[in-house]
Design a protein that fits this description.
25% helix, globular, 273 residues, alpha+beta, Hypothetical Protein Pfu-838710-001, eight-stranded antiparallel beta barrel
């Protein structure tokens, strides 16, 4: 049995939770995100530690549930990221500026629903996400989205007035979302990760790697402590920042070089910009 087979078996044994209930119990639009990039082969051990999959005792004492919508427990995502011509959003993240941001149109491929999302930094390193339903072309921002972005970024004291937005990166992956009731937190498992430039000149796939993300308060969750016990540590992997750095060797990428060297073996060798 492969690691993905074990993952499917373990997830299939969980009690489901619907989207409305998940949002009510763990919406977490203001949260501390911790991201881990690890081999897909390690996922069964993570699930085993959560008390799933029959991989031994000692799991967390939680009634873990899995998001289920219309009978599905794994969902396809596509995100089109937008930035200014000068890549202000990317550079703010690469240089770890306090006032950083991300703009994207996220598509839930199974339902063909689109949302325009803006992420900014809140107090003490938290992430604040703003979102609105989006009915326009997901590869370009309409007037309503641009006005929404201007208002949200102005509130965060980020000045992008008059700057145009353009698509700079597209990502796609398959996601499973778990709910951990003891800390009212979430854990997401992303596999099948793909990054591509809008003009089609470069594409990167990492089929042997998964991104595990915990979304909780500052104290973390039981899943974080489990991952630490398995020798996995949070790393500064960003689907936007790291992916664009891997595909664009002309960009500064000091912050992500350790992640690129360890987890993106198909990225071109590069010297620090």
């Amino acid at each position: 049995m492969t690691a993905l087979d074990s993952l499917g078996t373990a997830v299939g044994a969980l009690r489901p939770i619907g989207l409305d209930e998940l949002v009510a119990r763990a919406e977490l639009l203001t949260r501390l995100d911790r991201k881990y990039m690890l081999p897909v082969a390690d996922l069964p051990f993570v699930l085993g530690g959560l008390g799933l999959g029959g991989l031994g005792s000692g799991g967390l004492d939680e009634d873990v549930q899995v998001l289920e919508i219309d009978g599905r427990r794994e969902f396809g995502y596509r995100s089109v990221y937008f930035d200014t011509p000068g890549l202000d959003g990317y550079l703010a993240a690469a240089r770890q500026r306090r006032r950083r941001f991300k703009l994207r149109v996220r598509t839930y491929l199974d339902s063909d629903q689109h949302f325009f999302e803006i992420k900014t930094r809140g107090p003490r390193g938290t992430t604040v996400k703003h979102r609105m339903p989006y009915e326009g072309d997901p590869h370009r921002l309409d007037a309503g989205a641009r006005a929404y972005a201007a208002a949200v970024l102005a509130q965060a004291r980020i000045d992008t007035a008059g700057l145009p937005w353009q698509p700079v990166l597209t990502t796609s992956y398959r996601r499973t979302t778990l709910f951990l009731p003891a800390t009212a937190s979430r854990l997401t498992l992303d596999i099948g990760l793909t990054w591509s430039l809008p003009d089609g000149t470069a594409t990167l796939r990492t089929p042997e790697r998964a991104i595990v993300e915990t979304k909780a308060g500052r104290a973390g969750s039981g899943a974080d402590r489990l991952l630490w016990s398995l020798k996995h540590r949070p790393c500064p992997v960003s689907k936007y920042g790291t992916g664009l750095a891997a595909l664009r060797p002309d960009l500064p990428s000091h912050r992500w070089l350790p992640v690129l060297r360890r987890h993106f073996p198909t990225a071109l060798d590069r010297s620090p910009a």
